[in-house]
Amino acid sequence: xxxxxxxxxxxKREFQIIVPSSDVEAEVEGRLLELSKTVKMKGFRPGKxxxxxxxxxxxxxxxxxxxxxxIQKSSQKAIEERxxxxxxxxxxxxxxxxxxxxxxxxxxxxxxxxxxxxxxSEVSLTRPVAEVDDEKVNDGLQxxxxxxxxxxxxxxxxxxxxxxxxxxxxxGTIEGVELEGTSAEDFEIELGSGSFIPGFEDQLIxxxxxxxxxxxxxxxKDYPQxxxxxxxxxxxxxxxxxxxxxxxxxxxxMAARQGFDxxxxxxxxxxxxxKAQFDEASKARLKRSLLDLLAERYAFDVPTGMIEQEFxxxxxxxxxDLEQAESTFEDATGQSEEEAEEEYRxxxxxxxxxxxxxxxxxxxxxxxxxxxxxxxxxLESARGFSNPQQVLEFYRSxxxxxxxxxxxxxxxxxxxxxxxxxxxTDNVVDVEELFRDPDEEEAIAKEDVAKxxxxxxxxxxxxxxxxxxxxxxxxxxxxxxxxxxxxxxxGDDKKPxxxxxxxxxxxxxxxxxxxxxxxxxxxxxxxxxxxAAKAAKDE
Length: 539
Fold this sequence. Notes:
Elements: E1 2-9, E2 12-19, H1 21-36, H2 51-81, E3 91-96, E4 103-110, E5 124-129, H3 134-147, E6 151-153, E7 165-174, E8 177-190, E9 212-218, E10 232-245, H4 252-257, H5 263-297, H6 304-324, H7 329-333, H8 337-364, H9 371-382, H10 388-397, H11 399-402, H12 406-421, E11 423-428, H13 431-434, H14 438-467, H15 473-493, H16 520-532
Parallel strand pairs: 5-11
Antiparallel strand pairs: 1-2, 2-4, 3-4, 6-10, 7-8, 7-10, 9-10
């Protein structure tokens, strides 16, 4: 076998590989001989079919099989001999071959970069932490009380208001046909809760007990029942009772309704959950700080194929989410499609670079993933389902499905390893600061820099104007008008900076949407766009 390197440029490698015809022919003959021992053919005993007949009948199919296997073995040998680490599957192109001639093919690939890790213990990080004080616990108890809704019948005759509840019977039809799941009796609906089809509750505001009415609504296009999705419907509604919400007292009785012995036990649980949330947020912010620092510190070539692959994955999800929400890039992110595409490409490159860096750190420090690590991750995932044990059993019995946790678990272990080495200083902040999106902080910081540059430019201009001779006073006056125009524009500078587009969201799940408030579908699009590349900067 002859291997010639025809290109070595950055991470790109290209080889011309020639396999002698004698090697190919030997493989073909060997395979035909194997077949002759098992082939059954009319007129011959098993294993006694002449090789010449076997060759004539089976050579074309065997040749294709041998060529594929030869290319696989020879390309792998070329890679191993040169100790190459392909970033993706090499591209193979047969450049010359005819039966009986040498096999010549071209192998293109990108290799993984060589990364100099250096001293990781020199990293200094700040971890924002927030304390769970009594005020936060009381706020948590109040939220439980707000959710612990109890309504009682109103005896006086009055019109229903937002915040009231109605006891109703209803029956829905689409084009005169009743659909399953669109009727109920003695159903309690809270007006303004948004728990029903959009527009349904609005038409019940102002009604009184005893009323009978028809409610016309359109089912959402993403409604689970395909027969109803996007179609107009008519609901026949009988209002049986008007109910008003009772004030809930935060006491032992409320705690008992939540399944606790007393208020103290419920308070302890609230404090415990808040601490877990705060700790998780601190961990996420620390991880983000670490990855930001690594992204800034390490600069190396990244395989373009890996970037493109990552970008295509993110981009496809974003476009799918926007399409489902019937939204546009402009509405959802405040960017044109071209601007969004450029930003997502940058984020894809960041993700690939950080992924390669973390992978190299893990490789050099022999960080491994055990089955128990994967099962623990599966358990955490299963807790989000109504039947966690069943979900966990699915992962236990399906090794391939369990493998989906390997990459994120490995990343978390490497990040934990790096933060353990780093010099980490805790910084006590308020809860709002703890849960603030780092990208919003970045946008505000950029805006502040822009303001400072603008102010410096205006001072410089004013100094030049003052130094000009009186004969040019008219021109100076024009410059003053320009300054005034700048001052008028400065009001815009004081507006809050718009959050960066979707894929820059962090691990914090409460990232604010940048969507314009004109359409619910547009809001959904923005949130979906954010989730499409959620934690893109953190991976």
